[in-house]
């Protein structure tokens, strides 16, 4: 009887611990999205542009340009299954989650014969601030970053 009581108590504590951990993780994710959303638009955009530029410098330095005109647009996932198929999104991304598209417009794209008028656009998850897709405008190639795309790391 005593062993059964200890085991029951152990299971209850384990269940409470798991619930607390899951609640904490959900709060952290909501906080990072709320934190970004609570920033003034100019400051929010500055953070997102820095993430995009750093990604470009790291993953495709050949196409990094300083003199860009960044544009940030906010979107919400409506068809999560389609987005998941196209971009290999993590399972924790849900319908209604926010994402940001940062486009780095490049004024000299014609001189350099870029295929598009931008060096790159990067899509960033709102709740984690993690970039998950980059499209290089110079060569018209896009890379999924979940999992890390081996082509981009050459």
Report on this model:
The protein has three helices and five strands, in the order H-H-E-H-E-E-E-E. With 154 residues, the chain is an alpha+beta fold. It has two domains: 38 residues; 115 residues. It has a five-stranded antiparallel β-sheet with strand order 1-2-3-4-5, covered by helices on one side. The protein is globular, with a radius of gyration of 21 Å. About 10% of the residues have low confidence.
Structural key phrases:
5 strands; 42% helix; 5-stranded antiparallel sheet; alpha+beta
Topology summary:
Elements: H1 2-38, H2 41-59, E1 69-76, H3 80-87, E2 98-105, E3 118-125, E4 131-136, E5 141-144
Antiparallel strand pairs: 1-2, 2-3, 3-4, 4-5
Question: Summed up, what is this model?
Answer:
It is built from three helices and five strands; from the N terminus they run ααβαββββ.
The number of E-state strands comes to: 5
Number of helices: 3
Q: What is the strand arrangement across the widest sheet?
A: 1-2-3-4-5
Radius of gyration: 21 Å
């Amino acid at each position: 009887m005593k062993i059964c009581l200890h085991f029951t108590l152990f299971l209850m504590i384990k269940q409470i611990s798991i619930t607390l951990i899951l609640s904490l993780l959900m709060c952290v994710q909501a906080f990072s999205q709320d934190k970004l959303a609570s920033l003034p638009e100019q400051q929010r955009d500055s953070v997102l542009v820095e993430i995009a530029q750093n990604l470009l410098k790291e993953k495709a330095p050949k196409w990094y340009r300083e003199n860009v005109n960044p544009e940030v647009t906010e979107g919400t996932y409506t068809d999560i299954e389609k987005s998941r198929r196209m971009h290999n999104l993590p399972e924790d991304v849900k319908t209604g989650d926010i994402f940001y598209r940062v486009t780095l417009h490049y004024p000299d794209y014609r001189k350099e014969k870029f295929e598009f008028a931008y060096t790159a656009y990067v899509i960033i998850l709102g709740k984690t601030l993690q970039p998950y897709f980059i499209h290089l405008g110079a060569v018209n190639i896009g890379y999924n970053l979940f999992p890390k795309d081996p082509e981009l790391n050459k």
